[in-house]
Write a structure and sequence with these properties.
The protein folds into 2 domains: 156 residues, Cytochrome c-like domain (Cytochrome Bc1 Complex, Chain D, domain 2, Orthogonal Bundle); 183 residues, Cytochrome c-like domain (Cytochrome Bc1 Complex, Chain D, domain 2). By secondary structure, the chain is mostly helical. Helix 2 crosses helix 7. It starts with a helix and ends in a 12-residue tail after the last helix. Helices cover 31% and strands 4% of the residues. The strands form 3 sheets. A two-stranded antiparallel ribbon has the order 1-2. Strands 3-4 form a two-stranded antiparallel sheet.
């Protein structure tokens, strides 16, 4: 699974005779030369060996990502790139009267191509000055020159915008391959009769899919219970009352006055009612992709379930990670109290839900489970 850019180039040189765009995307995905200091690639913050998240230890428990300069830090947790290709283009659902789809926590890019084009030009991520600078890096590589011309025409490098767009298109093509979405977890094998769940996992599954108990499936279900190819998100945007991450304040990464307004930061959804709403993430590989929430405020999956329970259980007073009362929501006025309403859970049920969520781990990551 571990690879280098040179290894990928040598391995795939023959395959490009058939104009395989995804193979080019794979090379680009692992290329650190597309960042200002040549230290960071897409795979740096979306490590394929760890659920396509940023698993680097950066002194703040992986809450946010370190940029190419080795100093800059973002204010959001890097979401997994796994299963991202299933998110529809960003749109407004007129029936449900809410936004869906897109990429990033706020859907600001409508599709994978747009998402792939963001980090290279972000000053706190890969830090390149402009598209022309990125294309200049592409031109340094003779293999890229040859492959781009084969795939996109001999004149592709005469227009920097078109060359940059071709780059993002190739990366997006790679992100739609089975490597990002194998659907081979214990849960998938269970659906095929190849795995028998434990009694604890069965209880967790029953609780997860029961709207009379947990309401998990209201937001974390697309196709329906026990349907193959389920991504465990409806791609909607909701405010679930996530508190500010005080560690980011203490470290000076964000100001005390900072409030992440989420979806309303998206130029297509700049309305007050969208403040504090974030995209419902996939639960695929959730057990190995800590920390959690848009700001990485929770370190343990069990804490996340306890957090949901605290809205309905007066005994769930303290955050188990701090042993202090739960902090207030970062943005209060748009909290989706309707979908957070559920029956209170005891510790046995919380453990069961966590056990079920672990069954959503891709087979190649099962060794990472605690």
């Amino acid at each position: 699974m571990k690879r280098t850019l040179m290894g990928i180039i040598l391995l795939n040189s023959i395959l490009f005779a058939s104009n395989n765009e995804a193979k080019l995307g794979e090379m680009l995905f692992f290329d650190p030369n597309l960042s200002k200091n040549r230290t960071q690639s897409c795979a740096t913050c979306h490590n394929p060996n760890h659920g396509f998240i940023d698993d680097r230890e950066n002194g703040i428990n992986k809450m946010v990502s370190l940029g190419d300069g080795g100093k800059s830090l973002g204010d959001r947790n890097a979401p997994t790139a796994a299963y991202a290709s299933f998110s529809p283009h960003f749109f407004y659902d007129t029936k449900k009267k809410l936004y869906k789809g897109g990429q990033f926590w706020d859907g600001r890019e409508k599709d994978l191509k747009g998402q792939a084009g963001g980090p290279p030009l972000n000053p706190i991520e890969m830090g390149m000055a402009d598209k022309k600078s990125v294309v200049a890096r592409l031109k340094e590589n003779k293999n890229y020159l040859e492959i781009f011309k084969k795939l996109y025409g001999k004149n592709i490098f005469k227009n920097d915008n078109k060359a940059y767009q071709a780059m993002t298109q190739a990366i997006a093509a790679f992100e739609t391959t089975k490597e990002f979405a194998p659907f081979d977890s214990k849960y998938d094998r269970y659906l095929k009769g190849e795995y028998e769940m434990t009694s604890q996992e069965e209880l967790g599954k029953a609780l997860f899919f029961s709207n009379n108990n947990t309401n998990c499936a209201t937001c974390h279900l697309l196709k329906g219970e026990d349907k193959e190819g389920e991504t465990f998100t409806n791609y909607e945007y909701h405010n679930i009352g996530v508190p500010k991450n005080k560690v980011l304040e203490e470290k000076g990464i964000v100001k005390k006055s900072f409030k992440d307004i989420g979806l309303s930061k998206n130029r297509l959804a700049q309305y007050k009612e969208n403040e504090g709403k974030f995209k419902v993430p996939t639960l695929r590989n959730i057990a190995i992709t800590a920390p959690y929430m848009h700001n990485g405020v929770f370190q343990d999956l069990r804490t996340v379930i306890a957090f949901y329970d605290k809205f309905n259980n007066p005994q769930r007073i303290d955050n188990p990670e701090t042993n202090q009362p739960w902090d207030e929501a970062e943005i209060e006025h748009s909290i989706n109290h309707k979908d957070l309403k559920m029956k209170k859970l005891n510790d046995q049920k919380i453990d069961a839900i966590v056990a079920f969520l672990k069954t959503l781990t891709d087979k190649r990551y099962e060794h990472l489970l605690k």
